[in-house]
Design brief:
A 5-stranded parallel β-sheet has the order 2-1-3-4-5, sandwiched between helices. Helix 3 links the parallel strand 3 and strand 4. The protein is globular and about 30 Å long. The protein contains 5 helices and 5 strands, in the order E-H-E-H-E-H-E-H-E-H. The chain is α/β, with parallel strands linked by helices. The chain is 46% helix and 20% strand. The chain has one domain: Rossmann fold (3-Layer(aba) Sandwich). This is Response regulator. It comes from Corallococcus llansteffanensis. Pfam families: Response_reg.
Length: 128
C-alpha cells in the first residue's frame, strides 16, 4: 500500500492521458494533482509540494525540459523527483539527462506503476 503522504503531480497537455494517469495513480493510493503544461505545474507546486512530478516532454506554454530546469534551479523544489514521458525515443533523452527516468509513450500500465514506485522509493532512501 502507498503511504498516504505521497503526492504525484501529473503534467500532460493531452486531457485524455492526463485524466487516465490521474485515475490510475489514485486507484493505487496516491494523492494526485494535475496540470496541462509546465507553467500550470509550477503554479500547483507553489501551493503543494509533490513527491513526484510525472511530466510529458513536449507541451505548449512550458515544456518538460523547461519545467525540469525550473524545478532543479529552485532551492525549494529541487528535492522533488521527476519522471519524464515522451513519444520520442527516450533512449536519446536518457543520454541527454543521465540519472533521470523516462517512460516511452505509449507505455504499459504495470511498467508505469513499477517505475513510479522505483523513483519514489529511491527518493525516500535518499532522504534517509
Amino acid at each position: 500500500m502507498v503511504p498516504a503522504t505521497e503526492t504525484v503531480l501529473v503534467v500532460d497537455d493531452e486531457q485524455g492521458i492526463l485524466e487516465a494517469l490521474a485515475d490510475l495513480l489514485r486507484e493505487e493510493g496516491y494523492r494526485v494533482l494535475t496540470a496541462s503544461h509546465g507553467r500550470e505545474a509550477l503554479e500547483r507546486m507553489a501551493e503543494v509540494r509533490p513527491d513526484l512530478v510525472l511530466t510529458d516532454w513536449m507541451m505548449p506554454v512550458l515544456d518538460g525540459p523547461a519545467l525540469i530546469e525550473r524545478i532543479q534551479q529552485d532551492p525549494v523544489l529541487r528535492h522533488i523527483s521527476v519522471l519524464g514521458m515522451s513519444a520520442v525515443d527516450v533512449n536519446g533523452l536518457k543520454r541527454l539527462h543521465p540519472g533521470m527516468e523516462f517512460l516511452q509513450k505509449p507505455f504499459d500500465i504495470r511498467a508505469l506503476m513499477k517505475l513510479v514506485r522505483k523513483v519514489l522509493d529511491a527518493r525516500r532512501v535518499q532522504e534517509g
